[in-house]
Amino acid sequence: MSDEIKVPRGLANVVVDSTAIATTGSTGNLLYRGYRAVDLADRKSFEDVAYLIVYGKLPDEAELKAFRNKLFSNMVLDDDTKRIMDILKEKDIMRNLRSITSLIKYRNGDFNEMFIQMEAKLPLIAAYSAHAAYGEHLREPEGEYFAEKFFSLIASPEKKKYWKSLEKLMILYMEHEFNASTFALRVAASTLTDPVSAVTAAMATLKGPLHGGANSEVLSYLSGIKNEEDARNFVEEKLAKKEKIMGFGHRVYKKKDPRAQYVKEELRKIAHDDPKFIAAELVENYMFEKKGLPANVDLFAAVLMDFLGIKEIYNLPVFACSRIFGWNAHYIEQVENNKLIRPAAEYTGPEERDL
Ligand code: SDX
Fold first, then answer.
1. What is the largest CA-CA distance in the chain?
2. What are 32's strand-pairing partners?
């Protein structure tokens, strides 16, 4: 048809809609409702930022208290859900998150309840999955804050004093404009399906290695890098084989990912002599020198979680337990001013013919 518009594959640099939630935009800073995400990570709690992302403003004391109460009072799994995970013993925690989230019970039609149920229960589903599949010791969420409770479920108790480093990472993982999983969620939401179904679509998308699935591969290659020569050889080998190096490159950040830089500096403060941190910087320097590709958030996120004693099986689940707040915000924004997302296609099949 004459009014069709051809756009680059992958929708690279194509503005498909507007959003007031976040931008990776023009200043090179990731902004959450206008505030720099790194400033929020420095000075606000996870719950403050989650409230800002979902409801559009930073909470006052009473709003924060009520939000915490709603989240924490729903941080419990019913026996049926646990029994299903005991039967499934699914070792791929992200696959379990996707499946079990879609079973979360809620009163039909109450979207706000669905948001809270998912936000509160994802950390527990992740932790219980590991218990059911790997026999991980089951702990109760401890602490006063969301990230502190999540830390107590999945990280090493010896590293407890660093729980705020996990909180900062989770704030930076929370929202990222029209990334693939969020866009998948918006396509689903545009059909007016319910939030739990839309989040299931987002989780299925996040699971892909080009999107969220990258951070668990990072650790395996970093452990083999002991010095600059190892780093150079590793990068040269991968590039020669035209293979992607996980934790590098980004559709939007062509010079630097501000989140990666923030997490790197957090690591320099608490783990400057960690061998994987040193290896990550060596690879980062050579990748930028050789290919001009910046590290993305996943490179240093993987090193930080490893340092905190968080097993790599949790890497992607940590991302999802944080991004659920961004996904919920995008669900609300999409349906508030909805238009079914249904693009056109250029047909390259056989001409019309009789059967
Ligand atoms: C996240 O979009 C988001 O916002 C996502 C995210 C979020 O918060 O939601 O930021 C989270 O997904 C971070 C990215 C995690 N993924 C990885 O680390 C996987 C490795 N990265 C690549 O697969 C890649 O960089 C993408 C998919 C992230 C972006 O790819 P693009 O924009 O489609 O670019 P491209 O694949 O066309 O690459 C351009 C060039 C190519 O070289 P040439 O063919 O032109 O010679 O750069 C090369 C690519 O081969 N390249 C890489 C590379 N990434 C790109 N080469 C080696 N290793 C890499 N990682």
1. 72
2. 22, 35
* HSE-CB for 251 with a 13 A CA cutoff: 14
**Active-site pick, 48, 211, 230, 274:** 211
- Please work out whether the CB of residue 298 comes within 6 Å of at least one atom of ligand 1: yes
Q: Is 291 exposed, middle or buried (0-12, 13-18, 19+ CB in 10 A)?
A: middle
CA-to-CA separations, 99 to 47, 69, 295, in angstroms, rounded = 26, 26, 31
Each of the 355 residues of the chain gets a pLDDT tens digit; together they read 578 999 999 999 999 999 999 999 777 899 999 999 999 999 999 999 999 999 999 999 999 999 999 999 999 999 999 999 999 999 999 999 999 999 987 777 889 999 999 999 999 999 999 999 999 888 999 999 999 999 999 999 999 999 999 999 999 999 999 999 999 999 999 999 999 999 999 999 999 989 986 677 899 999 999 999 999 999 999 999 999 999 999 998 999 999 999 999 999 999 999 999 999 999 999 999 999 999 999 999 999 999 999 999 999 999 999 999 999 999 999 999 999 999 999 999 999 999 9
Q: pTM here? A: 0.96
- Which stretches of 135-227 are DSSP H helices? 146-154, 163-173, 180-189, 195-206, 215-222
Distance CA 167, CA 45 (A): 7
The secondary structure of 293-333 as a DSSP string is: PPB-HHHHHHHHHHHTT--GGGHHHHHHHHHHHHHHHHHHH
Q: Is 176 in the pocket of ligand 1 (CB under 6 A)?
A: yes
| Annotated active-site residue in 250, 257, 306, 330 | 250
